[in-house]
Design goal:
Residues 131-248 form the Prolyl 4-hydroxylase alpha subunit Fe(2+) 2OG dioxygenase domain. This is 2OG-Fe(II) oxygenase. With 261 residues, the chain is an alpha+beta fold. The chain has 7 helices and 18 strands.
Length: 261
């Protein structure tokens, strides 16, 4: 049976519980943010001094810095922690005078989750939340998994995470390509390394046992999915794919959700 994708006009606790429990592979919330503002914000971000490329995935452009990049060196990790709150404030300016989609997501999650939500911290240090990513023509993301414990080995807060969701708000979609692909499977660290592409963060899609679920996002839509599942971004064929994204970690309904990028 093909894994289910839930569509809801509102982000609510029931949808999050279904997603975290594996009842659905993804949760789609159409029109989470106004389309016309999405396009304006994407244009502002592209002109930002913060605009650059991933250190460990240089074909992908981004505004802000991903925690995933900080695994490359101790220096990058120090910069990440030192500038996390500053980057959050700078990202917020792109949307003035409107509420940013990431701030809206933070507020909604705090309202609907029994124990609320908070900005992520590791070892007493605040994390950045709200990374914007740009996939130009011919650029995508290889099949991969995002697991906080892999990026922060030996850190108690990371290793205690029970469920990790990826949240993407789509500011712009290309005329062709750019689909989200999700394989209903999780690889162990050993399996991931065996299937790994040399010199890349990703794995060979040909070595995956299942066919992926394909989702064609729309501008202004919020999509959440389990980031521990193998997932990829299809290459954009014409135009640009721009997302504003973060992770949401759960340790159960009695614990506060943690958010970071």
């Amino acid at each position: 049976m093909k894994p289910a994708v839930m569509v809801s006009n509102l982000l609510n606790q029931e949808g999050l519980v279904a997603l975290m429990g594996g009842e659905v592979v993804a949760l789609r919330v159409p029109n989470f943010y106004p389309e016309d503002i999405c396009i304006q914000v994407a244009a502002r971000m592209r002109r930002s001094d913060m605009y650059g490329n991933y250190v460990n995935a240089p074909e992908i452009a981004r505004v802000g810095q991903a925690f995933f990049e900080s695994v490359a060196s101790a220096r990058l990790r120090r910069i990440y922690y030192a500038r996390a709150v500053e980057w959050i404030r700078e990202m917020r300016l792109f949307c003035e005078p409107y509420l940013s989609p990431i701030d809206k997501l933070r507020l909604v999650l705090d309202e609907i989750w029994p124990s609320g939500s908070r900005l992520g911290t590791l070892q007493g240090k605040k994390m950045f939340v709200g990374l914007a990513r740009f996939f130009g023509a011919g650029v995508g993301a290889e099949p991969h998994q995002d697991v906080l414990a892999w990026d922060a080995p030996g850190v108690e807060e990371a290793e205690s995470v029970e469920g990790q969701l990826a949240a993407n708000i789509y500011l712009m979609m290309p005329q062709g390509g750019g689909d989200l692909l999700i394989w209903p499977m999780t690889l162990s660290r050993e399996e991931y390394e065996r299937a790994g592409i040399s010199g890349s963060y990703g794995v060979h899609g040909s070595m995956l046992a299942h066919d992926p679920v394909r989702i064609s996002p729309r501008t202004g839509e919020l999509i959440l999915f389990n980031s521990n599942l193998v997932h990829a971004v299809e290459k954009a064929r014409q135009g640009e794919r721009v997302t504003w994204s973060c992770f949401v970690a759960s340790q159960g309904v009695d614990h506060t959700l943690m958010m970071w990028s």
